[in-house]
Protein: E3 ubiquitin-protein ligase
Amino acid sequence: MNLVVAKQMCSEKQEKYDPAQSTQMFYAVVQLIGSKKEADNFVYRLELSANRRRMSWEATPRSIHEGVAFAIQQSDCLAFDTSAAQLFAENGNLGINVTISRLDAPQRRHAAEMEAGDLEYD
Structure:
């Protein structure tokens, strides 16, 4: 299943049963529709959150030319099993929040990282 999340990006989720682990695995990765050099200008974050739990993955997107299977083979993706998926599912649905940033864009800081008097505006 492909989901276009920006003009140049797409994310893909795959499911795979691994007989060695005797459980179904889920994989999520973001790919840039472009070259590896172009992909190096971005960073993405995938995040699952529910019931006071949070799991996230942050990485440089892969070029669409590298393929999803290569990212999974290299373990360069968000990977989790059925048990983890059930912890984050709401009414049987699993949502993944996707954030994509350009590396030359100023990075926002989390509120916990800010000192008194620091302000950030959109």
Notes: Residues 112 and 118 are 11 Å apart (CA to CA).
